[in-house]
Every structure is written in C-alpha cells, then in structure tokens.
Amino acid sequence: MSLLLPEPEGFERQADVFEVLYQKMRAGAVVRGLVQSVDFPDSIPTWLITFPDIDINGEVIGLVPESETGLDRALMTRFIQQPVNVQIMGVDRDNGLVACSRLAAVNQLSDRIEFKEGQLVTCSVRAIKPNPEGKRPLLTLDVGGGILVDIPYADARISFTKPLREQYKIGQLVTAKVTKINYGNQVSLSLKDARPSPWDNAKFRRGQIIAGTIARINNNNLVFIEPDLYPGILGIAPYPIRGSLRNRQKVKCNVAAFSAEDKKLRLRIRPQGL
Fold first, then answer.
1. Cα angle 35-37-43, degrees, rounded to a multiple of 5
2. For the chain (length 274 residues), average pLDDT per consecutive 10?
3. Nearest-CA neighbor of 106 among 162, 64, 60?
4. CA distance linking residue 198 with residue 247, whole number of Å
C-alpha cells in the first residue's frame, strides 16, 4: 500500500514550460529572454537565449537568427547577457528548441509608443559602438520596448577626457531629451540636453590649485583642461615655457579667472611636481 505524502512546505507546482510557450505563441505575446551566446548554425549568426521568467530549470533554448534580431551583425555579441523582448514563432518540444523573433516584438511594442518633442525619456544603455561616419563612438539606448536609438558622442558625453565606456555602463538607466521627431516616429535624443549645464554648479576661486586632465592642445599653444571637480567644463591655459604636454595628461593648475555666467575658466599650469 503506497502512502500519499503531502507536498513539502513552500512547494509550488510548475506549469509545463512548453505549454506556456505554446500559449504565448498563439496569443502573439511578447516574452522576455536572456541572450546567452551567439552560435552559427548553417553559418548564420544566431542568438541562443533562455527564458528566466518561464523556464526556471533551463529546459528550453530559444533561437533568434540574425535576420530576426533587428540589429546589425556587429551588435549581436554586445547583447550577450542582456535581456531582450521576443515573440515565439515556433516550438520544437522534441529538441527543446523555440524559434523566436526580437524584430517582431519590437515592431509590436513600437506601435504603442508615441514621442513628443522636448519630452524626457527614461532609457537603458544597450551598447557603445563605432561610428561609421566619424572617429567618436555612438551610445545606443533602448527608449522602451527594445526600440534602439543611437546618440552621437557630442550629445552623450559627460566628460571631455574619458571614453564613453568609462562614462556609462551597459544596463544603466539614463534620462534623455527628445530633440526631434523624424519620419515614422523615429526620434533624435540628447543626454546632454537632459542634464543641467556643468557650469551651473561649478565654483572656483582665483588662486585655487586644482587637478585636471588635458583634453586637447591647439596650434596657438593653448591647452584645454577639464577639471576633475567638474567634468564637462573646459578651462584654458597657455602652454608652459618649459616641459612638454600630451592629451589626457594629468596636470595641476592655478585658477587665474572664473565666471560661470560667461562660461570662462582661465588657468595656469603648474610645473610638474608642484
């Protein structure tokens, strides 16, 4: 005679994972996945994703081929270990595989989003990528639902002297301002315009000794220096008579003049070691 034992305290019976995925597919629902790797079945770059909200035990692998990511191939690897929205396109229970499309999910969610010029939008940082049209990289933001917008360096940077990868972390939430609405509800964004000017909070006194980093040196022997205290501000100093300088070099300076209203900071570089 077998005894029917009570279930352990706190036990929760799990729904059949494949049945849940079938239901999501039939409903055309958007599902959250997590990109685990990029593989190349039949030489096609393909995301392998898991479903942390549905498949606790990791029974199922989702496949998102390059054409269904909605991304340039160069961006696919940058999404490894990042969450993505997908629609379920097919379920193969026998092999534990699910065909998915991020592109279909983004298109569905984009229909629900409307922007207004001047609007502040909470976004997440998804990637920092090369700019094919310039030397400075682009910051890629998710403005909601997986809709990606590239921000030019000038509208993204906080500091003149630190690379973007040191200024932003993948997954970080940021506030951007809608500066323009283009055809098809495509938007232009600026992070710089969503923040107060760094000059608003800057305070310097004549004779004060500060540390800074050289942003650039122009042909007129003027040195542009970003103070460590207030990133985003550039002070100007004459090139010293002795010694040599280079971009991104740390220096100490004396404050010669300062006006927040006029956005003016005049500096004199101190000899090294002083």
1. 120
2. 60 73 93 96 95 86 96 91 95 94 92 88 93 86 91 94 94 94 81 94 95 92 95 95 90 96 96 68
3. 64
4. 22
